[in-house]
Amino acid sequence: MVNVIDNPTIKWCSVTLSDVIDRGKRLEASVFDVEAKQAFNIIKNSKYPKVNLISPDGFVEKAHYGGRLKRNYIKPNSINSIGFIGSSEMLDIYPNPVKFMLNDKKVEDLRVKENTVLISRSGTIGNVTLVNKTLSELLVSEHAIRLECFDSAGYVYTYLKTEIGKKLVCSNIYGAVIQQIEPEHLASVPIPNAPEEVKKKIHDLIIRSYELRDESNVLLDKAEQMLVEELKLPPIEEMQNADDTVETFNVKLSELNKRTDASYHVPVVKAIVKHLKEHADEVTTIGDERISKQVILPGRFKRVYVEEGYGRVFIGGKQLGELDPTNKKYLSLAQHSGRIEQQLALRENMTLITCSGTIGKVTLVGKHWENWAANQHIIRVVPASKEMAGYISVFLSSDYGYELITRYTYGSVVDEIDDNHVRDIAFPLLKDKDKQAQINALALKANEKRYQAYCLEQEALKIMDEEVIYCK
Fold it and tell me: Are 417 and 367 contacting, i.e. CB atoms less than 8 angstroms apart?
């Protein structure tokens, strides 16, 4: 008697006993997923010989992750401190650690070397990044597997970033509650061994892409340092010192601004605004028409998602720090075209600010995000001109801008701010207009480098697909 599956939406496949043995005697359906099986067949039928990712003739010399240890966090900028980030933050172009640990031998397992491929091993599986100079200066949690390659790290990174690579990695997931993979699960992932010239071409494109990201970070550091020097701003810790000892403080009735929550009136905000007024040419607000044309907070709506190629790229606040956001969704143009054009679409040189959940993440929209869409948890600041775009982003992404943004936070369960709050954020104009123009130019130049980095990575992915994976 033959069992017939009537429901065409059910994914199924037959599995031989030898397949089960080859896959480590695993019986979970995810290990034999239809799409994963198709991915294996595509690699099997590709032009070049296949090797296992981690093997004597493979690409990876060592695969490991940091050991678990008691995390004794210390204050930022403490003597001999080092930033600590997780497997989601490692995807950011310029990770901004909020946790710091003592930089000693105890954290040795959490360090990462340049040109190491990192791959997330728990929670969201299979997100990859390459360790550049920026990332090598931080500690990365044990939730990221380190793949130390013999050479061609850029080639391995590109392969694992493709859809085929992700499916092969995710076919090894285990765990009922928290899903995970282990280094040994990656050992048998097949990877085409392309000719040296092809591997080198892909590797070099990725290495240059990550060098450009480093260069953009250096430019932004320089821009912020110029801002701090011009406004004679002391370290933010000095401005916050009063908060460490003061448990109560007085607020005049005239300063309440209809807000009775203590967080709105913290002394650090008053200290920053007072200092800006003393050292800036003028302190205005983001809503000033000289600063911004519009401040947009999209309304809530029921989303209709479609497959890639049939809608507009759609991202959220968690992805703002990434160059090419992972886990992108695609919003239906047929259902949402009007809302996309009026509220959701991103335009080059907009400043984006997260306004729900995690408040105050700031990024400047690059050319490669032009016409993408972002959700209603992100406020868009449309600059009054290109001459103001970079300067807005530099100030709001600074420690001082962060304090001025987050003072408006409200909500007992989910933190929120709205577009009216953003319009009211204090904003300094410098006395030295040439310095202000230089800061703006540095930020725009940094964004241009990130656009170039994106283009190089996309070129590497295209070569991997056309000349390696699908080449017959």
Answer: no
CA distance 11 to 445: 48
State the pLDDT confidence band at 469, using cuts at 50, 70 and 90: very high
Task: Copy the structure tokens of residue 83.
Answer: 């930033």
In angstroms, rounded to a whole number, what is the distance separating the alpha carbons of residues 69 and 104? 13
Helix, coil or strand: residue 405: helix
Structure tokens at 42: 């595509």
Is there a contact between 139 and 84 (Cβ–Cβ < 8 Å)? yes
Tell me, what's the pLDDT at 302?
92
Per-residue pLDDT band for 450 (boundaries 50, 70, 90) equals very high
Nearest partner of 96 among 426, 321, 313, 330, judged by Cα: 321
Phi-psi region of 286 (alpha: psi -120 to 50; beta: other; left: phi over 0): alpha
Between strands 329-332 and 311-315, the pairing is antiparallel
Asked whether the beta carbons of 123 and 171 are under 8 A apart, the reply is no
Q: What residues contact residue 203 under an 8 Å CB cut-off, 6+ apart? A: 151, 152, 153, 154, 155
Our CA angle for 191, 323, 442, nearest 5°, is 140
Residue 221 has pLDDT above 90, yes or no: yes
Instruction: Tell me how far apart the alpha carbons of residues 402 and 236 are, in angstroms, rounded to a whole number.
Output: 10
pLDDT, tens digit (0-9, with 9 covering 90-100), for 405-438: 999 999 877 899 999 999 999 999 999 999 999 9
Of 80 and 14, more confident: 80
- Beta bridge partners of residue 82, listed in sequence order: 101
pLDDT at site 229: 97
